[in-house]
Amino acid sequence: MGHPIAFEFAARLAEIAPAGLDRIFFTSSGSESVETALKIAIVYQRAIGLGTRTRLIGRERGYHGVGFGGLSDGGILNNRRVHPMVPGADHLRHTHDLDRNAFSKGQPEHGVELADDLERLVALHGAETIAAVIVEPVAGSTGVLVPPRGRKPLSALVGGHLSAPHQRCGLTRCHLSLGLKQLDDLSIWS
Ligand SMILES: Cc1ncc(COP(=O)(O)O)c(C=O)c1O
Questions:
Q1: Which amino acid residue places its CA nearest to atom 3 of ligand 1?
Q2: CB 140 less than 6 A from any atom of ligand 1
Q3: Which end of the chain has the least Cβ crowding within 10 Å, N or C?
C-alpha cells in the first residue's frame, strides 16, 4: 500500500534515470537514505552468495549523515571521535589537493587517480570483504570539494558487484545530468 503520488513520482524518477535504475525506495532523510543504501548493499551481497562482503568504505572528509553507517563511512574527525563506529569501515583519500589544484576554475585538472586509492584498500583488506563504497560526487561538509576531471568506476576497482556510490548530489549540488552520468550501482538522492 502506498499513496498514488509516490508511485507516480517513482515512475517519473525512473524515466530520467539511466536505463536499469528503475527501483526507487523513498526514505525520510538523507541519513536514512544512507543507512538504507548501506544495508541494501550488504544484504544484496549476501543474497548473491558473497556474504563475506560486509566492509563499508567511505572517503576522508566525506559526510553521510548522522546514522551509525554514515558516521562510520564519513571522514570528519570530530564526528568520528565521539561516536562508536561500525567495525571494519575504512576510507579513501580525499580529493582536496591545493598544491596542484589551487585557483582551479570549475573541475580541477588533477586528482582522478586518487580513486586508485581503492586499490590500496582492496590490497589491504581483500575485495571479498568489501560490500560498499560510498562517496559524494561533490563533498560539501568540510568545504565544497569539486571532483577532479575524469571518472573511474569504483566498482571496477573492487571487482565484481559493488555497492553504494553516493549520489545525494545528483539533484542538488550537481546539475542533474552530471549526477546521473556518475551513477554506479546504487544511487542516493535527497
Ligand atoms: C552528502 C550527505 N549525505 C547525507 C546527509 C544527511 O542528510 P540529512 O541531513 O537529510 O539526514 C547530508 C546532509 O547534509 C549530506 O550532505
A1: 64
A2: yes
A3: N
Partners of 139 in the beta sheet?
145
Domains of the chain, first to last: 31-181 (3.40.640.10)
Q: Which stretch of DSSP H or E encloses residue 33?
A: helix 30-47
- Cβ 58 vs Cβ 93: under 8 Å: no
Taking the C-alpha atoms of residue 46 and residue 58, their distance in angstroms, rounded to an integer, is: 20
Which residue, judged by its Cα, is nearest atom 12 of ligand 1?
A: 65
Report in angstroms the alpha-carbon separations of 42 from 39, 47, 74, 97.
Answer: 5, 9, 17, 32
Q: How many Å from the N-terminal Cα to the C-terminal Cα in the chain? A: 23
User: Nine-digit cell at 107?
Assistant: 573541475
For 9, 105, 128, 131, 148, the CA distances from 45, given in Å and listed in that order, are 28, 40, 10, 7, 30
- Is the distance from the beta carbon of residue 167 to the nearest atom of ligand 1 less than 6 Å? no
What does the pLDDT look like over 19-76, one tens digit per residue?
777 888 999 988 998 899 889 888 988 998 999 999 999 999 999 999 999 999 999 9
Closest CA to 85 of 100, 69, 65, 96: 69
